[in-house]
Design brief:
Layout: H1 2-34, H2 41-45, E1 52-55, E2 61-64, E3 90-98, E4 103-111, E5 123-127, H3 136-141, H4 143-152, E6 160-164, H5 182-203, E7 213-218, H6 220-231, E8 238-242, H7 251-254, H8 258-264, E9 267-273, H9 279-291, E10 297-301, H10 307-318, E11 338-346, E12 349-360, E13 363-372, E14 375-387, E15 390-399, E16 402-413, E17 416-423, E18 427-435
Parallel strand pairs: 5-6, 5-7, 7-8, 8-9, 9-10
Antiparallel strand pairs: 1-2, 3-4, 4-6, 11-12, 11-18, 12-13, 13-14, 14-15, 15-16, 16-17, 17-18
Helix pairs in contact: 4-10
C-alpha cells in the first residue's frame, strides 16, 4: 500500500494540472456534441423564478434560482489531510476479468481500517470523468484519506470504495479523442453490472443486498450514476451524481415510474457548483424531482466544474450513505438563515441588534448592526452552527478602537433564540433574539 500511495502522490501534481485542462476542453466539446438533454413541454411551460445570471465557463450562461443554494457548509480545511493518529485503510490496484470487454481490466479498491472477513461491508462504486480512469478520483480527491478521517470521527460507516475504469473497451487508457470512446462509456453499464460487481463480491467480504450498494461519480461519472443507478434500483439504493455531464438522460426517461422510485431510493444526492456551466443538467433533474415529490438532496456550492467541488461532495455524501438518517441531518444552518432582532441590557446601556445570517456559496456567516446611545456599530458573524437545537456563533465588533471577540451560545426554539452572550472576560448577558418575518 505504501508504494501505491507514494506513486499516486508523486503523479498527482502533474496529473491534476494536465487532466483539469483536458477536462475543460473535452466537456466543452461534449456539450456541443451531445447538447443539453431535451426538455419536455411541461418543463418549458414551468414558470421561471427570478434568477441570478452568471457567465459559465463551458456550457453557456448560468441561471441560478432560489433553490440553487448550498445545503451544506464548506468542509473543514483538514478534511483531506492525512492524520497520523487515526487508523488507515488499504488502497490497492486490482485486476479482474471482463467478459463484457473480453480482456483483463483494472480497478482501484479502498478497504477501510480494520477490514476483516468476519464482517460484511457496504460498497460504494465511485466513477470518474470523461478524461479520467481508475486513478482519477485518487489523484483529485484522495477518497482513502477522506474516509479514514470520517470513519475515525464516527461520521461515516466503514465501507469499501471501488474506483473502476468507466471506458469499457480494450484500449481503456485516457487520452486522444475522448468522443471515440463514447460507446464504451455506455457499454460500461454491462461491465459494471456483469463483471465489476461480481468480481468485488467474489474477492471481498461485502453485503450483497441493494441497500448496501451505492453508486456516485463526477462529471461523466455523474451522468453514469444517474443513468445506471436510476435504471437499476434493484441493484443500487444510494445514488450520488456530482456535476453531471451531458451524457445524463432526460429526467422523464430516468424516472418513468415516480412511485416506484420513491419506494426504492434510500438517497438521491445531487450536487453542482454555481460556477459550473453544466449546472442546467442537474437543475432540470432537481426541478423534475421536486415537482413529482421525490425526496432528494440538492446541494449547490460556490465551486465550478473542479476537484474542489467533487472532494466536498464526496465528503458530505459519504456521511449519509448507508446510514438511516434524514438528508437534512448535515444541513445545520438552514433554520438560522435570515434576520433576527434583539435588545441586550448591558452595563453601558441597551444595545439594539439586528443579526443577519446568510448562506453564501458554501459558507455560512453574516453580519450585525448594533445601536447604542445613538451610535451605530457594524460587525461580522462567523462560525455559525446548529447542532440539534443548540446554537452558537461568533461576532467580531470594533468598539472604541478595539476588536472584541463576542461569543454566542444557546438554543433555537422556532422563531426565537434563547442566547447567552459573552464579551471576553468582561460581561455575560442572557437575551432572546426573534426572527424578522
Amino acid at each position: 500500500m505504501a508504494s501505491v500511495s507514494k506513486t499516486l502522490q508523486q503523479n498527482s501534481r502533474l496529473g491534476l494540472r494536465e487532466t483539469a485542462s483536458i477536462r475543460a476542453i473535452m466537456l466543452l466539446l461534449a456539450l456541443l456534441t451531445w447538447g443539453q438533454p431535451a426538455h419536455s413541454q411541461e418543463e418549458k411551460d414551468r414558470p421561471q423564478p427570478p434568477a441570478g445570471r452568471r457567465v459559465g465557463g463551458f456550457g453557456g450562461p448560468i441561471e441560478l434560482g432560489p433553490d440553487d443554494v448550498a445545503a451544506y457548509s464548506a468542509p473543514p480545511e483538514e478534511f483531506k489531510r492525512i492524520r497520523d493518529k487515526v487508523p488507515h485503510g488499504k488502497l490497492e490496484m486490482v485486476d479482474y476479468e471482463s467478459k463484457t470487454v473480453g480482456t483483463t481490466r483494472k480497478m482501484q479498491v479502498y478497504t477501510p481500517p480494520g477490514y476483516t472477513t468476519e464482517k460484511k461491508y457496504p460498497v460504494l462504486y465511485l466513477l470518474h470523468g470523461i478524461g479520467g480512469d481508475e486513478t482519477e478520483w485518487q489523484r483529485f480527491s484522495t477518497p482513502n484519506v477522506i474516509l479514514d478521517n470520517l470513519i475515525a470521527d464516527g461520521k461515516a460507516v466503514p465501507m469499501i470504495i471501488v474506483m473502476p475504469n468507466g471506458r469499457a473497451q480494450k484500449n481503456d487508457r485516457a487520452g486522444g479523442n475522448a468522443f471515440a470512446s463514447a460507446p464504451a462509456f455506455a457499454t460500461f453499464e454491462r461491465d459494471l453490472l456483469d463483471d465489476v460487481i461480481p468480481a468485488i463480491e467474489a474477492t471481498y467480504s461485502v453485503d450483497t443486498s441493494r441497500e448496501k450498494r451505492a453508486i456516485a461519480g463526477l462529471s461523466m461519472g455523474g451522468g453514469q450514476s444517474f443513468n445506471f443507478g436510476l435504471a437499476h434500483l434493484d441493484t443500487f439504493a444510494w445514488i450520488g451524481p456530482f456535476s453531471a455531464a451531458p451524457n445524463t438522460k432526460k429526467p422523464q426517461e430516468l424516472i418513468p415510474d415516480v412511485e416506484a422510485a420513491k419506494k426504492q431510493l434510500k438517497l438521491l444526492w445531487i450536487s453542482c457548483g454555481n460556477k459550473d456551466g453544466l449546472i442546467k443538467i442537474s437543475q432540470d433533474m432537481h426541478q423534475y424531482l421536486k415537482k413529482n415529490g421525490v425526496e432528494h438532496v440538492w446541494h449547490v456550492d460556490g465551486h465550478g466544474h473542479d476537484p474542489q467541488h467533487w472532494s466536498s461532495s464526496l465528503y458530505w455524501f459519504s456521511q449519509q450513505v448507508f446510514q438511516n438518517k434524514p438528508a437534512e441531518a448535515n444541513q445545520p444552518t438552514k433554520p438560522l438563515v435570515g434576520k433576527w432582532t434583539a435588545t441586550i441590557n448591558t452595563q453601558i446601556g441597551d444595545q439594539d441588534y439586528v443579526y443577519t445570517i446568510e448562506a453564501k456559496d458554501d459558507q455560512v456567516g453574516g453580519s450585525a448592526v448594533m445601536k447604542l446611545n445613538g451610535e451605530t456599530f457594524r460587525s461580522k458573524l462567523a462560525l455559525v452552527k446548529l447542532d440539534g437545537k443548540l446554537v452558537s456563533f461568533e461576532e467580531t465588533l470594533n468598539f472604541q478602537g478595539n476588536d472584541l471577540k463576542i461569543t454566542y451560545s444557546g438554543e433555537l426554539d422556532g422563531d426565537k433564540m434563547q442566547l447567552t452572550r459573552k464579551v471576553g472576560e468582561f460581561a455575560t448577558e442572557k437575551f432572546v433574539a426573534e426572527r424578522v418575518k
